[in-house]
Specification:
Oligomer: heterodimer
Radius of gyration of chain A: 24 Å
Shape of chain B: globular
Strand content of chain B: under 5%
Number of domains of chain A: 2
CATH superfamily of the largest domain in chain A: P-loop containing nucleotide triphosphate hydrolases
Helix content of chain B: over 70%
Number of strands of chain B: 0
Shape of chain A: globular
Largest sheet of chain B: none
CATH class of the largest domain in chain A: Alpha Beta
Largest interface: A-B, 37 and 27 residues
CATH topology of the largest domain in chain A: Rossmann fold
Order of helices and strands of chain B: HHHHHHHHHHHH
Largest sheet of chain A: 6 strands, mixed
Radius of gyration of chain B: 19 Å
CATH architecture of the largest domain in chain A: 3-Layer(aba) Sandwich
Structural class of chain A: alpha/beta
Strand order of the largest sheet of chain A: 5-6-7-3-8-9
Strand content of chain A: 25-35%
Chain lengths: ~325, ~260
């Protein structure tokens, strides 16, 4: 029997130390007929991570940054080239059945349900695979049908569903066995606003009610802003930021953004005469980036010259900040 | 028990799936009947010119044909499509990921993941033809022979299954194995003939290296002739050895699985 090693601290549900994954691609070159050419690529490099029980962590990175690879290592799909990891005390890639019964991975671009069958038939199969007792299975399914509003979908064949409907069914499939840790790899990819919102609501509920721990990768900043207090940013397989979204904004964009809808030429002139230096006009809107310490003075001047309903003060755009971080690396 | 329950649900789901496609079952059955007719005609042509094939009569050879087809049909019904899918798509497109996160043995789950109920109907056809052929041989078959035959058939099927698995394992390294899984059904054509018709190198190859002939010939021989301990032991041993090797290879190569990017 495999020995389950407890995580060092009880509240740490996911821990990884120096996880690296190197992909090796071999190809044949006719000019060198007696040897295979090896091309190595580091997908993940020395990634350390500690996640507490019940956390909802956003995992950000540009395409090819290593997000999915890392999630696949933590879910036991792939073996790392080096490093150690424990999820709920288990080494993921040893694929202990007790571990697999307590985790789930949702991949927005892949389906695990039978394409030609109604979702309920695939769910029955999953019940047998995860050995879910009848009462628990029924309770979980009823809850998900209600929250995700998918009663009609249960008997609809997967291939006749829209992308949003399919994603709801895939999500429900991943939560039937009450996982404690869930890895979400772009669960809202390609979905419209309504479907995305319904999925976010469901995920938040699972996090709050069932205390599920989530790691979410998404290119939609809305997902991250709405669900994750903590974000980890990786570029080229290396962690470049780990902290709260608020600290991220404070660190990389300490300025506030003041936006003024300029109604006429006089207002444009008035905007040009503002004492603040860092300002510009874009599509009929005057934009000012103000340091938080100077915000009071600038706001006073702006409010004295323009009407209140035409002014918006906000934090810098998160997407802009992340783009800035990706660009730096 | 858990695996049996999963197989039962997989088969039921496949029946629901296939029953939605109008004419699929009818066409599949007609195809099998056509194949039986062609082969019986072929054997009739051969036996019009000879009285026996390596000492086996027309109905004995017909039995061998029906028995080997029962094994291949059972393989098609339960394991073939799943394994073929692993070799052609599952690894290439990363669908194997979903098998790896399930608390079930991956080799078993992949093997049984794409059942074909129509092949189960074909297996019943061929099994009936095998029973008919045995009766028509006029040879007295004792209860002991039948018990040994059924016992060895299980091991024959294990060998057949292991050979199929062996042909798809390279997919873990090569991503896709193209027509490599087709080797087993092609080689299965040899299973319908008595071993005596093959030359020594062929016998060694089909009995020892790629023991597809052992899977059908030894159980069939036990049915018609007094059981030979050496052959029985050989079949059981080779089935167990192959199964262990296949399991080890699967686990070894699975560790190198790198999944397709999203």
């Amino acid at each position: 029997m495999k020995k389950v090693i407890r995580a060092r601290r009880v509240d740490m549900i996911i821990e990884s130390k120096k996880i690296s994954k190197k992909y090796v691609k071999t190809s044949y070159n006719i000019k060198r007929p007696f040897r295979l050419e090896r091309e190595e690529k580091m997908a993940v490099s020395n990634l350390d991570l500690e996640i507490e029980k019940g956390e909802f962590v956003g995992f950000l990175g540009s395409n090819g940054a290593g997000k999915t690879t890392f999630l696949k290592i933590l879910s036991g799909i792939m073996h790392p080239s080096s490093g150690t990891a424990r999820v709920m005390g288990y080494v993921p890639w040893e694929r202990d059945y007790n571990y697999l019964r307590q985790m789930a991975i949702v991949m927005g671009q892949k389906n695990q349900l039978w394409w030609d069958l109604p979702a309920i038939d695939s769910y029955n199969l999953l019940q047998a695979i995860y050995e879910i007792p009848d009462a628990r299975y029924k309770k979980n399914l009823d809850m998900m049908v209600e929250v995700l509003d998918m009663k009609e979908l249960l008997v609809k064949r997967l291939r006749n569903m829209s992308l949003g409907e399919r994603m709801k069914c895939e999500l429900a499939a991943s939560f039937l066995h009450d996982p404690k840790v869930v890895f979400l790899d772009e669960p809202t990819i390609g979905l419209d606003i309504v479907s995305s919102r319904s999925i976010r609501t469901f995920l938040r509920l699972m996090n709050e009610e069932k205390k599920c721990t989530f790691i979410l990768t998404s290119h939609y900043i809305g997902d991250i802003e709405e669900l994750c207090k903590r974000v980890i940013i990786i570029t080229k397989g290396e962690k470049v930021y780990d902290g709260t979204l608020a600290s991220l904004k404070a660190k990389y964009a300490p300025n506030k953004r003041i936006e003024i809808f300029l109604q006429n030429l006089d207002e444009k002139k008035a905007f040009a005469h503002l004492s603040v230096r860092d300002k510009k006009i874009e599509n009929g809107r005057g934009i000012i980036y103000a340091d938080k310490s100077a915000l009071g003075e600038i706001a006073k001047e702006v409010f004295s010259r323009f009407s209140l309903e035409n002014i918006i003060i906000s934090d810098a755009d998160t997407e802009e900040i992340i783009r800035k971080i990706f660009g730096q690396k | 028990m858990k695996l049996l329950k999963i197989i039962k649900i997989l088969m039921r789901n496949a029946i629901i799936r296939d029953s939605k496609v109008v004419g699929f079952v009818t066409v599949s059955i007609l195809q099998e009947i056509a194949s039986i007719v062609v082969n019986i005609t072929f054997f009739n042509v051969i036996f019009a010119n000879i009285s026996s094939l390596a000492g086996w009569s027309f109905y004995q050879v017909l039995f061998l044909y029906a028995f080997s087809k029962t094994i291949t049909s059972l393989s098609f019904a339960f394991t073939r499509a799943g394994l073929k899918d692993l070799g052609e798509h599952m690894i290439k497109f990363g669908d194997y990921d979903f098998h790896l996160i399930k608390p079930v043995d991956t080799m078993a789950l992949v093997s049984f993941s794409r059942p074909r109920p129509t092949s189960l109907i074909a297996a019943v056809f061929y099994a009936s033809l095998a029973v008919y052929s045995v009766i028509k041989t006029g040879i007295y078959i004792g209860g002991v022979n039948i018990i040994w035959f059924l016992f060895l058939t299980i091991f024959g099927f294990i060998i057949f299954y292991c050979l199929e698995v062996l042909t798809v394992i390279p997919a873990f390294k090569l991503i896709r194995v193209w027509s490599l899984p087709e080797i087993v059904p092609k080689m299965a054509e040899f299973m319908r003939y008595p071993i005596g018709i093959f030359t020594l190198p062929f016998k060694i190859f089909l009995f020892g290296v790629f023991p597809i002939l052992a899977a059908s010939y030894i159980p069939a021989q036990v049915l018609f002739y007094p059981p030979q301990t050496s052959k029985i032991l050989y079949l059981v041993a080779i089935a167990i050895i192959f199964f262990i090797i296949v399991r080890k290879l699967w686990k070894f190569f699975e560790k190198g699985y790198s999944s397709a990017s999203s």
